[in-house]
Amino acid sequence: MSKSLLGPGEGMAGHVFGLDMTRRVSGDDTNGAYFALEFELPPGEEIPPHIHHNEEEILYVIDGEIESRVGEETHKALAGACRAIPRGTVHAQANHGRDPATLLVIFSPPHLEELFERSAEVTPEEFQELAADYGMEPVE
C-alpha cells in the first residue's frame, strides 16, 4: 500500500495521450476497486475519442473548463462538474478555453493502472498498440 495522504503534485508520474498525468490513488490503496489519475489539460489540447471496454470512468473537473463528449452528448463542464462514463461508451475531452483545466479521472476496476505504469516507457505510437491489449480502443 502506498502513502495514505499525498500532497500536491505527489504520486506516480506517467504519460497518456501525450499528457503528463499523476496517479493519485492506486488499485492497491482501494483493495482493487479503482484507481485515480490527476492531470492538466492545457488550452487547445484534447483527449481524442476512445472507448474503454473493461472500465467504468468518472471524470471530475477540479479547475478550469472543458468540453466533454460522452456518446452523442457534448457539454461544457466547469470546475466542480462530475460525469460518469459507462464502459463501452465513446468519449473525448477538449480544452477550447484560454486557461488550463485540471481533471481527476477514476477508473473501476483498476485494470488500466498497469497500462498507465507502462506508458512512461513507450512512444505515443507504441502506447496506442499497448492500449489495445488493455481494451482501450481509439475511435475516429
From TrEMBL:
Q: Which residues cross the membrane?
A: none
Q: Which Gene3D superfamilies match?
A: Jelly Rolls
Q: Which domain of life is it from?
A: Archaea
Q: Which residues does the UniProt record annotate as the domain Cupin type-2?
A: 38-107
InterPro entries referenced in this protein's UniProt entry, alphabetically:
Cupin_2 (IPR013096), QDO-like (IPR053146), RmlC-like_jellyroll (IPR014710), RmlC_Cupin_sf (IPR011051)
A UniProt-annotated Pfam family: Cupin_2
Query: What PANTHER family does this protein's entry cite?
Result: PUTATIVE (AFU_ORTHOLOGUE AFUA_8G07350)-RELATED
* Protein name from the UniProt record: Cupin domain protein
Source organism? Halogranum amylolyticum
